[in-house]
Design a protein that fits this description.
- There is one protein chain.
- The protein is α+β, with helices and mostly antiparallel strands and 676 residues long.
- Helices cover 58% and strands 8% of the residues.
- The strands form 3 sheets. It has a 5-stranded antiparallel beta sheet, with helices on both faces. It has a 3-stranded antiparallel beta sheet with strand order 6-8-9. A two-stranded antiparallel sheet has the order 7-10.
């Protein structure tokens, strides 16, 4: 490992101070407030970043800022904040060791691509908002939020917040600036920060995050200028160009989140970073502008009223005598047409402000009570329609269509009798028409439903669904997260399209690994790639076995049944020597049932924990194999390290799979789990 890569006495002093714990690799960057090195930790086999204070800044305010940055970072432990491991000092050399994020800064990404895809921008904003929410809860305001201080992990794309150099701790009101002194980066400052206010809270960071989000979506800053005071003045006095004017393809909810974050007055912004994060969830009501929220389901109501009027006009034209038929049809049909036209004309300002797509999405938003197919543009977030088993979708469609069929059939019956009032029509004629109507309509509908129901009952027995779960599977709201997340129900659902090729689906991970095996670079260790493919398939098989057993246990472990057993034991009261034999036998039986139930619950929890470990190994194998392919041609030393990690993972898979088999055999012999 290379120890010193730049000719500087302080680098040699740093290497000496680190000793054997860390080995300097290379210089990562140099800025006005610090020098950052890449180093290697041989004991934990990981890379770290080490930040030092330049020699010319080892006294005064810069030193205090550096120390405070270290203290602040040391208090924070969050998935989207770069962690600080340790701090050190040697003579006037100050340094601290932090996590190394292999990738690039968000600023570097924006310099290269100008703007990001909407979904990726939404994710990055949400992750930074989550990190800010945690820091604010800890009493820390960042005060220098900008793309340079957001790092993007190369492998996962995860956003990591760093550089708390001018952060302020509210609990102690600790600050290094006096009244009227401006600190931070002008293009990302909140109006109150630009005005030099000292008492900043988390809403100042929310404004800065809004500026970053604006740039991610539109490709430009909300306020630009060559002069510092010009930029600060715009932040304090001018409103930015609306997001949808610069990025017409951006979702309305996302644009509304950004524009609210950029409000001049702190009270008009999101009250907390957590609220901004939650509003970024697609379909969140909090992110919908008030005008659009008031327009929710207007299209459905308009359509229902118009259809009712047209239906009334049709019925009136059939029932009425021939001279008045056109009058009936014209009156009700005219009301329906007028309703539709008036609604559209009255909503022209909404169309101009938000665009046709956003208004139509709000108008035709799926009602929570509707349980069948709905156009994709109007579905609620988390809707599971596309993931339902085909047989369930078929029955749900038939249930919904049966109501349409009923109305259409009644209309057909009226049409058949349109020219013969019942008072003057022979009974035989009416009976013939009614029988023909029933035979051609209801018989077809009932037959289709009966065939589908029979197939569903057979499928229900095959997958082991209880009658109650089967009923809910057919009638539960498509957005009911609690029901669809139950293990035995979730096992029936197909992976969501948005999560295909994700790090959470074992099948996707295996496909990615198999693709890496097929496309192994020339000269690569073929045996290593083949072993990785075999290990991945073994992990996937064991995960599938866990899922299958968990699904079965989910059907057997009914919390209500456990409550009934406990109620029976409570009703019997405490055991007594003088109690009769039937009561004693009943108590023994209930106690056995309770123990069996508890064993099943314990087994289910063990399987879920086992599945998590197996999935983590599969995910790690996929990541390391991708890294090996990327590094094989560029850095032989790094590729060798990654190969070693893959070998370790493969050996761990073999050991873990065998250990699980042995544990299952022992548990089965002991009787603590039921035989499969």
């Amino acid at each position: 490992m290379v120890a010193v890569l730049i000719d500087e006495p302080r680098t040699a002093l740093l290497a000496a101070s680190l000793g054997a714990q860390y080995q300097l690799v290379r210089l990562l960057g140099r800025g006005g407030m610090g020098v950052v090195y890449l180093a290697y930790d041989p004991f934990l086999d990981r890379h770290v970043a080490i930040k030092t204070l330049p020699a010319e800044l080892t006294t005064g305010e810069a030193r205090e800022r550096f120390l405070r940055e270290a203290r602040t970072a040391a208090r924070l432990s969050h998935a989207h904040i770069v962690p600080l491991y340790t701090f050190g000092q040697s003579d006037d050399l100050l340094y601290y060791v932090m996590g190394y994020v292999e990738g690039e800064s968000l600023e570097a990404r924006l310099q290269r691509e100008r703007r990001l895809p909407v979904d990726e921008a939404r994710r990055i904003i949400a992750e930074v908002a989550d990190a800010l929410s945690y820091a604010h809860d800890m009493g820390i305001v960042h005060r220098d939020l900008k793309p340079d201080n957001i790092l993007l992990d190369r492998t996962t794309g995860r956003a990591m917040l760093t550089d708390f150099g001018i952060a302020k701790q509210r609990a102690t009101a600790e600050t290094l600036t006096g009244a009227g002194v401006i600190v931070g980066t002008p293009h990302y400052m909140s109006p109150e920060q630009a005005a030099g206010e000292r008492q900043l809270d988390g809403r100042s960071d929310i404004y800065s995050l809004g500026v970053i989000a604006y740039r991610l979506i539109t490709g430009r800053l909300p306020f630009e200028g060559d002069q510092l005071m010009d930029v600060l003045g715009q932040h304090m006095t001018r409103a930015p160009v609306p997001v949808h004017q610069l990025a017409p393809d951006s979702p309305v909810d996302l644009a509304n989140v950004v524009e609210r974050a950029l409000a001049k007055a702190p009270a008009d912004r999101w009250p907390a970073a957590s609220a901004l994060r939650d509003a970024l969830t697609p379909g969140s009501d909090e992110a919908i502008p008030d005008d659009l929220r008031r327009a929710r389901h207007v299209g459905l109501r308009m359509g229902a009223l118009s259809l009712a009027m047209f239906e009334a006009g049709f019925v009136g034209s059939i029932v009425a005598t021939p001279p008045t038929r056109l009058i009936w049809a014209g009156i009700f049909g005219g009301i329906g047409l007028f309703t539709s036209v008036a609604t559209v004309v009255g909503s022209i300002p909404l169309f101009r402000r938000f665009g046709a797509r956003a208004v139509l999405e709000s108008w035709f938003r799926q009602p929570t009570w509707f349980t069948s197919w709905w156009p994709a543009f109007g579905r609620a977030h988390g809707d599971v329609w596309d993931r339902l088993p085909p047989i369930v979708r078929r029955l749900r469609r038939l249930n919904a269509l049966s109501w349409v069929w009923l109305v259409a059939s009644l209309d057909l019956l009226l049409w058949l009798l349109r020219d013969a009032p019942l008072a003057t029509t022979p009974v035989s004629t009416v009976t013939h028409r009614l029988l023909w109507f029933a035979a051609t309509n209801y018989a077809a509908a009932v037959g289709a439903l009966a065939l589908a129901a029979h197939a569903f009952r057979r499928w229900m027995k095959q997958v082991g669904l209880t009658k109650r779960d089967a009923e809910r599977l057919l009638h539960e709201s498509l957005g009911a997260k609690v029901f669809w997340a139950q293990p035995n129900i979730a096992a029936l659902l197909a992976p969501h399209e948005a999560h295909r090729a994700s790090h959470d689906d074992p099948a996707d991970l295996v496909r990615a690994i198999e693709a890496a095996v097929r496309n192994a670079p020339d000269g690569a260790d073929g045996a290593l790639y083949r072993d990785a493919g075999n290990a991945a398939r073994a992990l996937a098989r064991n995960i599938a076995a866990c899922d299958q057993e968990v699904a079965q246990l989910g059907r057997d472990v009914d919390p209500q049944e456990r409550a009934r057993i406990q109620a029976g034991l409570d009703a019997l009261g405490a055991a007594q020597e003088s109690e009769r034999e039937p009561k004693r036998q009943m108590r023994h039986l209930l106690e056995q049932q309770a123990r069996l139930f508890d064993d099943l619950v314990k087994r289910r929890d063990e399987l879920l924990a086992r599945r998590t470990l197996l999935l983590e190994q599969l995910r790690a194998l996929s990541i390391q194999l991708a890294a090996l392919r990327a590094m094989a041609a560029a850095d032989g030393g790094e590729a060798t390290q990654i190969s070693g990690r893959i070998h370790s993972i493969i050996r761990g898979v073999e050991y873990r799979v065998e250990a699980m088999r042995e544990a299952d055999r022992a548990a089965l012999a002991h009787g603590s789990i039921p035989p499969s």
